[in-house]
Amino acid sequence: MARKKTFTQEELYAATHDLILEVGYDVFSFQLLAKELDITRTALYKHYANKNELLQAYLNYQLEQVVEEIEETVWPATYAEKISLLMDIVFGYADTHAISAMVPTQKWTKENEGNPDIIKSKGLHMRFFGFIQQVIEEGKDTGFLNPEIPSMIMIETIFHSINLPNQAGLSREEYTYFVKKMLFEGILKK
User: Fold this and answer.
1) pTM value > 0.70
2) If we measure between CA atoms, which residue out of 27, 26, 93, 28 comes closest to residue 59?
3) Domains of the chain by range and CATH?
4) Averaged in consecutive runs of 10 residues, what is the pLDDT profile of the chain (190 residues)?
């Protein structure tokens, strides 16, 4: 059977997403990705010099998607609904966050600070972080969130909760529901 000669960016990114989650960063290769897409490795090398370049482009694309989703969302009027929806969006990109943690070149270092893809990534992260910080401060200002807890701890807790292993085997929706319930209501019985 003849191999395909072309692929869309969406097909490439979807296959990249699924494959790296399945095999991990170290095993992920253009050879495996080409097989998954039924194309030649040469077709991939026409667009990306190596897997790190591809993964950086994929991660920036995903981050653009979450920033766009946040900026285009019609946010609810009530704060409880707003923070809940924000967490749903954050949890919706949990796989991408996990992939980002796998990729060593994704880490910001002195050596890569001039890289245009890293500069873009930092800018997108700052927009994302800024919005979350704004929502946290709004919650404190309106009396919905505990003002004694530093904002950064709240932000880190939200972000790091997506990294917790789902050993209970719950669906993403169930898992998100219970994590939000625990964060919003606490673990102590009232």
Assistant:
1) yes
2) 93
3) 1-47 (1.10.10), 57-185 (1.10.357.10)
4) 73 96 95 93 92 92 93 94 93 87 74 81 88 94 94 89 87 91 86
